[in-house]
Amino acid sequence: MLIRHYYSIVGFASSQIKQNPVVMTKINRVVRIECEVPINLNDNPLHWYRRVKNGALHRVSYLPAGSGKQESETGFTATKTASGTGYKSVLSVSKPKPDDTGDYYCAYWDSSGWVKIFGSGTRLIVSDRRTAHPSVTIYHNPKNRELLCVARNMFPDVLRMTWQKNDGSGLKDVDQKTVPTTIQEMKGTLSSLIISDKNGTEELEKYVCLVDHESYQKPEPFPVQVSTKAGGNENSREAVSGQVTCQPKKSNDSSPDTDPIKKSELLTVSLSYCMLILKSLTYFGIMSVIIYKRSSQTS
Hints:
A hairpin with a 7-residue loop joins strand 5 and strand 6 (71-72). The longest helix has 36 residues, at 263-298. By secondary structure, the protein is α+β, with helices and mostly antiparallel strands. It is built from 3 helices and 20 strands. The two termini are 14 Å apart. The strands form 4 sheets. Strands 1, 2, 4, 5, 6, 9, 10 and 11 form an 8-stranded mixed β-sheet that branches. Helix content is 16%, strand content 37%. It folds into 2 domains: 9-126, Immunoglobulin-like (Sandwich); 135-245 and 258-275, Immunoglobulins (Immunoglobulin-like, Sandwich). The radius of gyration is 22 Å and the shape is globular.
């Protein structure tokens, strides 16, 4: 019973729940946060949670199954409608304040009733500040088949970064099962590291870093240009590619270093990736032990 109680509080994120990565609104303007789930909300309840900076998850709305009365905090309302692939729920914030800025998640219990399934979350930004385009830089290492796409100096500081590859017939999403991809967020900078399945300059130039940000009307593609000199333009929509290793400055060059990613920052990003992988392995080991003990008790 002790193990079951521990296991019942575990939550998992699911790619089957669709949420926009970021929604931005001005102060006191009604904002709506959408969530699509693959279950029938007439038969299953839905929960909405909020997590503000340095805070814990806090439920702000509850939609019971069927036509039961919803339970929501003041200023929040939730609705549900049928969609083509399942059901959609919309959480409305009537008069948002800067304090309402945070991450909002929809969630439901799985069929066993032991595990709660969460969406990826939507970052709500409540501010009268104007959006700012991200500055995107792509670093490459042809020998090790590595590509690093880095976005920084954007507002809001949330975006979605994916990789595509030209297979001869057009750009296609990279299969993360065959091509390792790692996402890391640190101090307002988002980076994505990818390892190509083949090496060589021509192969790397087939890749495109696709950036989806609130300041763009649609996702912007940033192609890999191996022949371009290293560098970067702040708040620019143009991609600049360069070698991962920093080139030494000439003795007669008095101009400031315009490269937005310094060697120390690249080292920090690399260490962050290693820690992320170690954390994932540790989490996998703990969950494997819990599942094994649970299976042993039920058998």
